[in-house]
Structures are given as structure tokens and as C-alpha cells.
Design a protein that fits this description.
This protein has 645 residues and is α+β, with helices and mostly antiparallel strands. The protein has 2 domains: 86-364, Beta-galactosidase, Chain A, domain 5; 375-424 and 463-603, no CATH class. The protein is built from 15 helices and 20 strands. The strands form 3 sheets. Strands 5, 6, 7, 8, 9, 10, 11, 12, 13, 14, 15, 16, 17 and 18 form a 14-stranded antiparallel beta sheet that branches. The chain has a 4-stranded antiparallel beta sheet with strand order 1-2-3-4, with no helix packed on it. A two-stranded antiparallel ribbon has the order 19-20. Helix 11 runs parallel beside helix 13 (571-594). The radius of gyration is 38 Å and the shape is extended. The protein starts with a helix and ends with a helix. The relative contact order is 0.06.
């Protein structure tokens, strides 16, 4: 048995060992540094081995060339260019078509990309299916050895739900999903790694899950903190008027919390963003978009460009080219790293894109630069329009009912404005008398003062007629934005208009009129005629009032200017303005029947005879003025007395 001293000695020896281990243990920073050093040594060894292998391949190429072996030369050259991905540089392109309830997507094993998207619920203007791209290519630029390997040049092996693909592939229904995986295996016995592109197609979603998985590629891919992604697409024309469509096509992106975009109106543009996180990038057309959305980590930089390429005149399907170079965060030191994204291929429909809660609805031009305009559209016009659309009526009837509802809501403001105008007309003889009393320019202040005193005695606020008109202005401008941007009106016919989202035309001129075009829009003509009648009616009501010189001609010129501006605009917009003006005539007639100008004049005279009730503030001001005048008179009297002495 061990005696007491032996046990104590052993305990002390163990304590010394434990204390030494604790004291000499490396800190967290030292362990990280040691790991980095070990990783660096491993990378150096791998690079040395890779360089030795490349040198060996070069020797093999030289030997094969001298021996006349073309297959070996080709394989060796492929390895020299693609490194560990050399086995994926040659293959046979395979196309896989997968459908859900909303679209059909054609994938390609060359590059593991979405090659084509066809939307099922929409047709282009020539009644063919809406196909979003003429060309769509994207992929990663990976640093492998001393070369840049582009994944769009690699052939991938596809599987569906981890099983070989069998045809036909059933349509993905609502509530279901399908996982399509493209895998590019590394031809390296040391790593046994693979690059995977995973696509998740859901039954009733315009979004496609898009994950890039790096499996055991540490040391093969030299990129450490980020990789580059290139996305080039040629968009197709889908609408009746390609000139309007190209003006509404550009690249939009979410820069932190603000939606930015490249120049529209068909202008070529380029932007570089660096250092501010980018959540999504969208290639936007007038009514459709293709977008890439970052999920787990935003893009850290982007270079985006829009350009109109020169194409033959016969190529009428081409609209515009979009190009982007995105920087994606990447953990190069990990054995497995995954980048999660979504691809969106669908309509610019507010009810669809607003549900994603990533500000993507701001690609729809609803007047986001002016808060009142976008509030009116988002919280009033769109909900009412969607509610009326659910009844299954023709869109022309929906717009008619919407116009009536808007006019009913605005009727109190219209009544206030008209009654104020009636009061002003009744006072015109007295205002004219004041004008005759002060005919000179030097007497303008006296004339203004006496006119305001007349308004005050009569109990009239001269701004009362302007304020209701100003309150209606945001709704007028909101409609100007809403109708041309509403995909719900796309290809919906009404009367002679075959597409309410575009211009209506009853006749096409054999020549172009500057700023007008060659089409003759009947809705625009009707709106212009109605506006001229409304102007004439307004001018009659204001007869005898003081007007600026030339104002009469300017009032008649405005409708003619609007004819040139709105001739190529949405037929729904011109139809709304025409119907709105017709209801304005009706409102004016109804209000005119209810207002008796004789009674208004009698009431104003009664108000003039009443003593003017002064507010406390006004009484204090007048008291101060009276006190100041007394002080001034006292000082003047004192100066006179001093002068006499």
C-alpha cells in the first residue's frame, strides 16, 4: 500500500503537470494564429503539389505533342485551364424543363443556369407566351490555381430530389416543392469535393430558391472572403408600344434601405456600388421583372450597366441588355460554405411583390418620390381597385365606378370651392369699384388693403376656393401614375381600346407629328374636348374678375398641350380623365342649382353690416399700434417745442 507521503508526492506531481499545462497553454489569439499558420502551410503544400502536377502535365503535353497524341494533349490543356474542374469542362448539354402553376423554367446543365422562363398567366402583345429573355447567362468567377474558372463554362450533373431525372417531370402543385441539384465534381483524390447549385421550385411562388454550396473545396478555390457573380440578360419586348416599354426598363436595386435605379427613358447607364449592402438586384421591364435576392448575407459590391445593343431591324423581339457584376460573401476557410439566394421571375404586381417585405414593390412607379402620391395609391386607390376587380366586371366599368367613388369622396371639397367662387362673383361690382378708385400702380397697396377689408367684412376667405383644389391635386397626380403602371389593365379591352395599359388608336396617320406621334387616340381627343368645355365654363364663371393679361389664352392652350402629352399614354388614364371631367360638369350643375346668388349677396351684405368681432390677439395688436402712434406724436411735439426755443 502507498503510504501518506507517497500519495502526497504523486498529487503534487500531477498538480505540477496540470499547472504547467495551464500556464503554457496558448491563448485564443495564439490558437487562431497557429491554425492560420497550419492552414497556410497546408495551402503552400497544396500549391506546391498543384504546381508540380501542372509541371508534370506540361511535360506530358510536350511529350504527347512529340508523340502525336491529340487526346492527351486536349485533356492536359483542359486541366491546365480549369484545374480541379477539368473533368467538368467537357460534356453534353442537357436541358430540363420544370413547371409550377405560374411559370415554366428551362434549365441548362451547361453552367447550371436558368436559360428561359415562360410565364403561364400572361401573353405578349402578339398573343404568344411571355418569355422573359432572349439570352440569360450567369455564374461565378472562381480563382482556381492561377486561372479564373467561369462556372457558366462547366457541365454539371443534374438530379431531382437526390434521384436521377426521369421524364416527364410532373408540374409542381401548390403546397409542394421540387429540388433540382446541379453538381460539378472535383477531379482530385485529395479533396473529393464538389460545387453544387441547388434550385427549389415551389408550386405557387414566382420565386425560385437558389443556393450555391461549396463542398470540401478548401484549398482548391483560392478566393477567401468573396466570389464574383456575373449576370447578363437580353430582355424581350412584350408590349404594344416598345418605345414606352424601353423607357420603363432599367436596373433597380435595394441599397441598404433605399431603392435606387439606373437611368430610364432608354438611356444607357452604368453604376458602381461598393461598401453598402445590396439586398437585391432587379432587371425591370414595364410589367415584368427578373431579380436576384440575397438571403443570408447581402451583396457587398456591384457594378451594373444597361445598354441598347445594335440589332438588325428584323429583330423586333429584342428590348434591352442588362449586365451586372456582383460580389458575394464567401467563407473560403470553411470545409463547407453555402450562399442562399432567391430568383424572382414574375409580374410587377403590387399584391405579389409587396408580400415579400423587401421594398420590391418600389419598382412599380406609384410616385414614391412624393409621400402623398404613394400613400393615395397604396392605401386608397389600389385597395378600392382590387375590391372592384373581384366582381369580374370589364375594366372599363371598374374605372367608371372608381371615378364615381372618388368624385363622391371629393364632393364636399368641390362644393366648398364652388360656393367660394360664387361669393367672389357676387362681390365683383364692389371689387371693381375699389379697382376704379385706385387706378394707379402706386396705389396698389391701398387697393389691396381695401379689398382685403371688404373680404373681411363679408366673411370671405379668398384662399377658401384654392385649398380644396390643392387637396384634390395629389389624387389627380396619383391616377397619372397608377393607370400606366397597373398590370391588371394590361391587354384588357374596352370599347374601341384593345389594351387599356397602352394607347388607343382609331386611326394611324401615314406620317409622324412631332411630340404627338402617328396614332390618333379617341379617348385623348374626348378628354381634350371635355377639358376645353370645362375651361370655357370656368372662364364664363370668372367673367368680370381681375385676370392677368393673357391668362384667358393660356387657359385654352393647356388642354391642347395635354393632347400632345397624353396621346401616347395609357388609354385607361385618358378614359379616367374624360369620365372625371364629365362628372365635374354634373357636379357644377348640381351645385349651381343649389346655390342662389341673390341669397348669397343678401347674406354677404348682412355680414358687412355686422360689427367685426376682434380676437384678443388682434385687439392687443391694435392697442400696440395706437400706443406707438401716441409715442410718435409726443416725440414730434417735443421736437417742435425745441425748434421754437
Amino acid at each position: 500500500m502507498l503510504d501518506r507521503n507517497t500519495i502526497i508526492g504523486l498529487v503534487l506531481i500531477f498538480a505540477v503537470f496540470i499547472g504547467y499545462a495551464v500556464l503554457t497553454a496558448p491563448s485564443e489569439e495564439e490558437r487562431v494564429a497557429m491554425k492560420a499558420k497550419q492552414d497556410s502551410i497546408i495551402r503552400v503544400q497544396e500549391n506546391i503539389a498543384l504546381e508540380a502536377k501542372v509541371e508534370q502535365i506540361r511535360d506530358s503535353i510536350a511529350q504527347a505533342s512529340s508523340e502525336g497524341n491529340p487526346d492527351l494533349v486536349q485533356d492536359s490543356a483542359r486541366f491546365s485551364e480549369y484545374g480541379a474542374f477539368a473533368a467538368c469542362a467537357d460534356g453534353e448539354k442537357e436541358e430540363i424543363s420544370i413547371s409550377n402553376e405560374l411559370f415554366e423554367i428551362k434549365f441548362s446543365s451547361l453552367g447550371a443556369i436558368v436559360e428561359q422562363v415562360t410565364l403561364k398567366e400572361y401573353l405578349s402583345y402578339d398573343k404568344t407566351p411571355v418569355i422573359l429573355f432572349d439570352k440569360n447567362t450567369y455564374g461565378l468567377n472562381l480563382t482556381v490555381g492561377q486561372n479564373i474558372v467561369r462556372t457558366e463554362e462547366l457541365y454539371f450533373e443534374p438530379t431531382i430530389n437526390n434521384k436521377p431525372i426521369t421524364q416527364p417531370i410532373p408540374t409542381v402543385k401548390a403546397g409542394d416543392s421540387l429540388v433540382l441539384v446541379f453538381k460539378a465534381k472535383v477531379a482530385d483524390s485529395l479533396h473529393n469535393g464538389a460545387l453544387e447549385f441547388r434550385y427549389v421550385i415551389r408550386g405557387d411562388d414566382y420565386r425560385v430558391g437558389y443556393n450555391v454550396v461549396f463542398n470540401n473545396l478548401k484549398g482548391i478555390i483560392s478566393d477567401q472572403s468573396s466570389v464574383e457573380m456575373v449576370w447578363d440578360a437580353d430582355l424581350r419586348s412584350q408590349e404594344k408600344d416598345a418605345s414606352v416599354e424601353v423607357k420603363n426598363s432599367s436596373i433597380y436595386y435595394l441599397l441598404k434601405d433605399e431603392v435606387e435605379y439606373l437611368k430610364e427613358n432608354g438611356v444607357d447607364d452604368k453604376k458602381d456600388e461598393n461598401g453598402i449592402p445590396i439586398k437585391w438586384v432587379s432587371y425591370k421591364q414595364q410589367f415584368f421583372s427578373a431579380s436576384i435576392i440575397a438571403n443570408n448575407a447581402p451583396f457587398t459590391a456591384a457594378t451594373m450597366q444597361t445598354v441598347k445593343e445594335n440589332r438588325p431591324a428584323s429583330d423586333t423581339s429584342y428590348l434591352r441588355s442588362m449586365k451586372s457584376l456582383l460580389t458575394i460573401p464567401f467563407e473560403g476557410d470553411e470545409l463547407k460554405s453555402e450562399v442562399s439566394m432567391d430568383l424572382f421571375y414574375g409580374p410587377n404586381k403590387y399584391a405579389v411583390v409587396s408580400d415579400y417585405n423587401i421594398h420590391m414593390e418600389e419598382i412599380i412607379p406609384l410616385g414614391w418620390g412624393f409621400f402623398l402620391m404613394q400613400w393615395v395609391n397604396r392605401f386608397a386607390i389600389i385597395p378600392i381597385f382590387d375590391f372592384l376587380s373581384n366582381f369580374g366586371w370589364n375594366m372599363g366599368i371598374v374605372i367608371l365606378v372608381l371615378t364615381v367613388m372618388v368624385k363622391i369622396v371629393l364632393f364636399p371639397l368641390a362644393y366648398k370651392s364652388y360656393s367660394s367662387s360664387a361669393k367672389m362673383r357676387v362681390l365683383q361690382p364692389q371689387i371693381k369699384a375699389i379697382t376704379d378708385k385706385y387706378p394707379k400702380k402706386e396705389q396698389a397697396m391701398e387697393k389691396q388693403k381695401e379689398t382685403m377689408a371688404l373680404y373681411k367684412r363679408a366673411g370671405i376667405n379668398p384662399m377658401a376656393g384654392c385649398l380644396p383644389m390643392l387637396l384634390q391635386f395629389p389624387i389627380l397626380i396619383a391616377m397619372f401614375r397608377f393607370f400606366p403602371a397597373s398590370i391588371e389593365l394590361r391587354q384588357k379591352s374596352f370599347l374601341w381600346a384593345d389594351d387599356l395599359s397602352s394607347y388607343d388608336s382609331i386611326f394611324t396617320l401615314p406620317f409622324e407629328i412631332p411630340f404627338y406621334g402617328s396614332n390618333v387616340s379617341l379617348f385623348c381627343l374626348l378628354m381634350t374636348v371635355a377639358q376645353l368645355f370645362y375651361t370655357r365654363m370656368t372662364m364664363k364663371q370668372q367673367a368680370g374678375t381681375n385676370q392677368m393679361p393673357g391668362m384667358k389664352y393660356m387657359m385654352y392652350l393647356m388642354p391642347l398641350m395635354m393632347l400632345f402629352v397624353l396621346n401616347k399614354y395609357s388609354a385607361a388614364l385618358n378614359y379616367y380623365y374624360f369620365v372625371s371631367l364629365c362628372f365635374t360638369f354634373l357636379q357644377v350643375w348640381v351645385i349651381g342649382r343649389t346655390i342662389n346668388e341673390g341669397k348669397v349677396l343678401a347674406k354677404l351684405k348682412a355680414n358687412q353690416n355686422k360689427p367685426i368681432k376682434k380676437s384678443k390677439w388682434q385687439a392687443r395688436v391694435e392697442a400696440l399700434e395706437k400706443q406707438n402712434r401716441a409715442v410718435m406724436e409726443q416725440r414730434q411735439n417735443q421736437q417742435k417745442h425745441k425748434g421754437k426755443r
